[in-house]
Write a structure and sequence with these properties.
Number of domains: 1
Strand content: 35-45%
CATH architecture: Beta Barrel
CATH topology: Thrombin, subunit H
Helix content: under 10%
Number of helices: 2
Number of strands: 20
Order of helices and strands: EEEEEHEEEEEEEEEEEEHEEE
Length: 316
């Protein structure tokens, strides 16, 4: 149970097609009216777009971080969330299981098993998760597709003064008992960009393009979504210590990372990337043509042709 009205039951991994089941994927824009501040959000408010990463081990739920759905069965998160799980032994084969929990409209909950973790390069703070649906007893009628939301990304560098919305789940740890409340809490924080880091911010341990935002974030929000004023996903929350500023790792360096999604079964290509999926209509990336890739030796390099292309104006 997620709360008094949200329920989920674990089923077998959905690794083969279910006859007559249909899926619908909607690219979603997220616009927050506030220009500053921190507040609690309703769990279904983003319709499953932002997910909670729940490590289940030793009879406890550990809400450890957040992620955002960017393609069918693919979520983007902060690399250090996965790295810290490895350092603590959480990802050892016998130590437990990592789940992603998404709460949708009409009080529907989906439970996903993490299948693989891929970083764009060693030490980067971006990681792509491939997920397999494991929710029991939620098959819709054949004429009613099961709907999922995906964030529409933008490959761009936000401008100084631009308003950014940061959304993720609070960290929590609760005992696992039948019928117990899991303790999910979705929160949002809004502020303006104060600094740009087109390549990296070494002094804060961010080896990838990033921005600083005048907004507070709390534990567990790492890996959550950062949306620009137009509603595009521009990155994921990297760090924040309960006070401003918070730092965001921009998402565009992850769009050519090789991934192997396994859900929906028998549907996704076995080897692909977010860029390839976008070209085939499986996800959305604004300004994709402005991302340039080339090889230096055996190292793939990337840049964006205009760091401020497609600037989303602030809402008054």
């Amino acid at each position: 149970m997620v709360s008094n009205r949200f329920h989920v039951e674990i089923g077998p991994p959905e690794d083969s097609p279910i006859p007559s089941t249909q899926y619908a994927f909607r690219q979603k824009m997220v616009r927050i009216d506030a220009v500053a501040g921190f507040r609690d959000l309703q769990l279904p408010q983003l319709d499953g777009l932002v997910v909670a990463l729940d490590w289940v081990a030793n009879d406890r739920h550990h809400i450890w971080g957040s992620a955002v759905m960017v393609a069918p069965g693919v979520a983007l998160t902060a690399g250090h969330v996965i790295d810290e799980m490895r350092c603590r032994g959480f990802l050892a084969e016998a130590s437990g299981q990592l789940w992603a929990i998404s709460v949708h409209a009409a009080d529907r909950v989906e439970l996903w098993r993490a299948d693989s973790f891929t970083q764009d390069e060693e030490g980067s703070d971006l990681s792509l998760l491939t997920l397999v649906r494991t929710t029991a007893a939620s098959r819709p009628p054949a004429d009613c597709p099961l709907k999922f939301s995906l964030a529409r990304m933008a490959a761009r560098m936000p401008c100084i003064g631009e308003t950014i919305s940061l959304i993720g789940f609070k960290a929590a740890g609760v005992s696992f008992e039948r019928g117990a409340i899991m303790g999910l809490a979705l929160v949002g924080s809004v502020g303006q960009v104060t600094d740009q880091y087109p390549q990296r911010r070494d002094s804060h341990g961010l080896p990838n393009p990033a921005i600083a935002v005048d907004a507070c974030t709390v534990g567990g929000m790492s890996g959550g979504a950062a949306f620009d004023a137009a509603g595009h996903l521009i990155g994921v929350i990297s760090s924040g210590l309960d006070e401003s500023p918070s730092f965001v790792s921009l998402s565009w360096p992850a769009i050519y990372v090789p991934i192997a999604p396994k859900w929906p079964p028998a549907t996704m290509p076995s080897e692909t990337s977010l860029a390839a999926l976008a070209k085939d209509g499986w996800c959305g990336i604004e300004y994709l043509d402005n991302v340039r890739t080339w090889l230096e030796g055996q190292v793939q390099m990337m840049s964006i042709s205009d760091p401020n292309v497609g600037k989303a104006p602030n809402r008054s």
